[in-house]
From TrEMBL:
Key words of the record: Metal-binding, Oxidoreductase, Signal
Protein EC: 1.15.1.1
Protein's recorded name: Superoxide dismutase
Family the entry assigns: Belongs to the iron/manganese superoxide dismutase family.
Gene3D superfamilies found in the cross-reference section: Fe,Mn superoxide dismutase (SOD) domain, Iron/manganese superoxide dismutase, C-terminal domain
Length: 243
């Protein structure tokens, strides 16, 4: 490098530093275009937004590494299967029987992981509390009220052996139901729709809660964004809810 070019690089460093400092600490540089039809959705809030109930480091690792790994593996599995790659994620999961056996397990695990987490991030980042309006009426009607729903949801999540999820599903007529699934399975595989759910894989809580899954499940309600859940409820009734 010549002296003049070295001076030019050094002169530009303050400007680069200013750009870096102006970006929120949690914002990532724009990612390269995905190598397939599926991509990692950005977090709709800072990783620290769920503190102290879910720590920022867990959020960063969970979103940027675990979820990204599902997306990457799914794209790799679908790279030679154009028709499957063109399907919306919820349709792909509902048609697993049509996926070639050679990639079916990979698609099941990773499409499920992608769908579950794409639902998971937006229903958090809130301040807890309770649902209201039409959603609260549905919770009272179908799940015995908020307190009973919370108790049974937590018990189902704690009782899910190994890794998995606990969900509240929503039908087109607005009826709610509580269910669990192992691994990265999802009610979408049965043609159902998920209103909201919680991840009980250890990577979702172990840095803060270690083996205390019930404590994590109870704390999680403090970060639920009921406005977003209500939007999902309205979309389900309108027939427009995807994952």
């Amino acid at each position: 490098m010549t002296p003049s070019s070295r001076r030019a690089v050094l002169a530009g460093l303050p400007a680069l530093a200013a750009i870096a400092l102006s970006r929120p600490a949690w914002a990532q540089a724009p990612a390269a275009a995905p190598s397939g039809p599926h991509s990692l959705p950005p977090l709709p809030y800072a990783p620290s937004a769920n503190e102290p109930h879910i720590d920022a480091q867990t959020m960063e690792i969970h979103h940027g590494r675990h979820h990204q790994a599902y997306v990457t593996a799914l794209n790799n599995a679908l790279k030679d299967h154009g028709q499957l790659a063109a399907l919306p994620l919820h349709e792909l999961l509902a048609k697993l029987d049509e996926v070639p056996e050679s990639i079916r397990t990979t698609v099941r695990n990773n499409a499920g992981g992608h769908a579950n987490h794409s639902m998971f991030w937006p229903v958090m980042g809130g301040r807890g509390g309770m649902p209201s309006g039409e959603l609260a009426e549905a919770v009272n009607r179908d799940l015995g009220g908020f307190d009973r729903m919370k108790t049974e949801f937590n018990a189902a999540g704690a009782g899910r052996f190994g890794s998995g999820w606990v969900f509240v599903t929503v039908a087109r007529d607005g009826k709610l139901a509580l269910t669990t699934r192992p691994n990265q399975d999802t009610p979408l595989m049965d043609g159902q729709r998920v209103l909201f759910g919680n991840d009980v894989w250890e990577h979702a809580y172990y840095l803060k809660y270690q083996n205390r899954r019930p404590e994590y499940l109870n704390a999680w309600w403090n970060v639920v964004n009921w406005d977003r859940v209500a939007e999902r409820y309205a979309a389900a009734k309108a027939g427009t809810l995807g994952v």
